Amino acid sequence: MKISVNWLKSLLLLNHSVEEIEHKLSVSGLEVEHVEDWFSAGSGLQGFVIGEVLTCAKHPNADKLSVTTVNIGEAEPKHIVCGAPNVAAGQKVIVATVGTTIQMPGKEAFTIQKAKIRGEASEGMICAEDECGLGNSHDGILVLPATATVGMPASQYFNIQQDTTLEIGLTANRGDACSHLGVASDVAALFNIPFQRFPQINLPQAPITKKSIHIADSNLCERYMAVELSNIQVQPSPETIQYHLKSIGIEPKNNVVDSSNYTLHQNGHPNHIFDADTIQGNIQVRLANEGETLTLLDGKTINLHPNDIVIADDHGAIALAGVMGGQKTAVTANTKNVLIEIAHFHPTHIRKSAKRHLYHTDASFRFERGIDKHNIPYSALTLIQLLEQNAQAQLTGMSDNYPVPHTPKVLVIDYPKFIQFTGADVPKTTAVQILNSLGFQTEWDNQNADLLQVTIPSWKNDCEKSVDIYEEILRIHGYDQIPMSGKMQASLGAFEGMAMRKVENKIREFLISNGLNESATNSLHPAAWYPNNNNIVQLTNPLSTDMDTLRASIIPGLLQSVSHNIKRRAQRVQLFELGSVYSLNTPEVQKNKALINASIHTPSFIETPTLAMVFWGDHQAESWENPTKTVGYYHIKQILQGLLIRLGSKLDINQIAIQQAPKNWLKAAEIDTPVFFVEIPWRTLLNQQAQNLKVQSPSKFPAVRRDLSLVVNQNTTYKELRSIANKLNLPFLTDIRAFDVFQGKPLEASQKAIALAFHFSNPQATLVDEEIEASMNKLIAAYEAAGANIRK
Questions:
Q1: How many helices (H) and strands (E) does the chain have?
Q2: CA dist., res. 509 & res. 299, Å (int)
Q3: Cβ neighbours, 10 Å, residue 12
Q4: Strand bridging mode 213-215 / 338-345
Q5: How many CB atoms lie within 10 A of CB 599?
């Protein structure tokens, strides 16, 4: 939000420097993010003077240049080479002297220096309109009237106005400061300047408006004030109003529109002016009808949503309330009669409408933060007076629908508690003075001198509790006034996040060392990625339709990264991301115990820390040693197996799904070749964590191998046979390997033969035959009991 310092000074007696104002506002909660000098033309015409061309001759070495001498009021005329076709002796011109910075629209700035141009000395520049910031023409130099005074600064000749604008980063709770009056109120309190934000007024007498106002729901519109004015003369605004508006970045249009903008930015009340002759019937404030459309002031036609508040006449919507007016009822050069609207609309509805239709206007900015409905008549009077003075308007009607009057809130402050809470021993008189200067009404309790009754002004909608009053006192008194005790007390709670972060870093280190790159994608997705998912978490107020859902999977974001790299001729893309996915906390989701145990719960949704990986293209970079291979299932499984070992996890590799991205996702990401992916709640890796690995030196004694050939059912797996052996807990058995599988005659069709090698080793001594035979006999007995036949 931009604030003009000159505009502030027109509202209160302010003699302090811009630097002091900037500092005080910033430390009191209205952070000044940027300070900029403003001029009514260019950069203020600094360094430009009025000159007279004394002589003008053709340049001896260039056909399109002229050599001139120019009197700029100094002892000697300046020699200036000029390329303008219209330069001639006797002209009064604008001259940029040596050292002057020229800033032309759309071009880099440069500084005028003494130079030789094609061998001729040049000590300045005779300027065109665009070169000095007075216009956009570059057809030739700007020739002034013969009455212009030679040597006069151009800024003085053109009466250049100067101002300083403060760009304030306004927080969402400071609706009271969305205007010059609001900022002036804080400045007055900070510098102890007498100031009354909304003095008592008497509205002029006028009959009820010819057009009746109907409010369908007082929750949508708590106040609607309408003013009818006739015999409007549409013309340019006075220069003072134009300068104020220009200084905050608003281009003046005409006295009617400018008066509306001026009132908004001075008082903080959004308003709208309709051409009354284009309104058909009476005014209604209601929700939009299904299928209703509206063409706005910018010419764009929008499809209204049933939750949009609209201003309508008997033939349909004529304005999107609190956001923008309609083109049909816009003020034009031919407007003669107007109807002014100053209203209070529901902030949430306005915010949603503005975001829904992608409009962020000065009006919606203020409605979203909450405006002061009680002092709407003050802005109505301001606007009436401006139009009477500048547009010769005549007041013909006024109505005020105020179904929900403002009730002042009263808070009781226990002063000793305030001092104890803040640590600031602010004198009672100082606290009362600060609150009064901000518009609060105060009164000490007759029975208890430590209790202060504070009546909240109508514009301070962020004051709900006692601590809010504490803040108002302290931000004006100065947080730097709170004494430091020299001690620091802190209560450190248990922090378990570091252990998780260490595991995350282990995962990162392993995957990066295996050739994957870490990615960080947006956690907001379009709902279109999840057409059949009823558990997605949708945002109430999305920034756009492309970011209306908390992601239910990380893979769509990674696929978009894959697509980005493919389009840039990548041959191999392997990415991973550690992030969260989200789902609604429904009974259906609660049934998945493994997911629940690996997630963070809230009453409405579940957040699951997740590891996601995608693989596309070549298995490894092309080289003369290795032929090019496309990444596949076993390459990914190898990486996963290594990761489980690195984490010391007992999770079975077969519990991790290696999948190909579905076709609809590939199509949405504009990928036409397969992409493998893995997505797993990574805390499941920790829930089955094994003991720490131990280093053991190999045995010094010889190992022994014994083989068995088992005839088993063809459906029997190696895993089952290995499990039978492991359950025996044989003391010296170190490994089991399957080295041959046979099917065919003389075996039956339902049978197969598996040859297993059993490796034995004793780290303490050499094994003897009796020990090995005992183990083998137990193995044979176990396999026969399981239905296997031992081939002799």
A1: 22, 40
A2: 55
A3: 17
A4: unpaired
A5: 23
Cα 169 versus chain centre, distance: 13
Whole-prediction pTM: 0.66
Q: Are 168 and 3 in contact (CB under 8 A)?
A: yes
Contacts of 676 (CB under 8 A, 6+ apart): 614, 615, 616, 631, 632, 633, 636, 658, 659, 660, 661
DSSP string for 342-378: EEEE-HHHHHHHHHHTT---HHHHHHHH---STTHHH
Q: Identify each DSSP E strand in 542-675 by its residue range.
A: 549-550, 572-584, 600-601, 605-617, 659-660
101: which DSSP letter? E
**Residues 653 and 640: beta-carbon distance below 8 Å:** yes
The C-alpha atoms of residue 76 and residue 79 are separated, in whole angstroms, by: 9
Question: CA nearest 276: which of 392, 150, 396, 368?
Answer: 396
Element (H, E) at 637: helix 633-647
What are the tens digits of pLDDT across the range 530-565? 888 888 888 876 767 778 899 999 999 999 999 999
Q: How many CB atoms are closer than 10 A to CB 112? A: 20
The model's pLDDT over 488-537, given as tens digits with 9 standing for 90+, comes to 777 666 556 677 888 889 999 999 999 999 999 999 988 888 888 888 88
Phi-psi region of 663 (alpha: psi -120 to 50; beta: other; left: phi over 0): alpha
Which three-class secondary structure state does DSSP give residue 384? helix
Tokens of residue 171, six digits: 């927080």
Structure confidence by residue, pLDDT tens digits, 75-124: 999 999 999 999 999 999 999 999 998 888 778 889 999 999 999 999 99
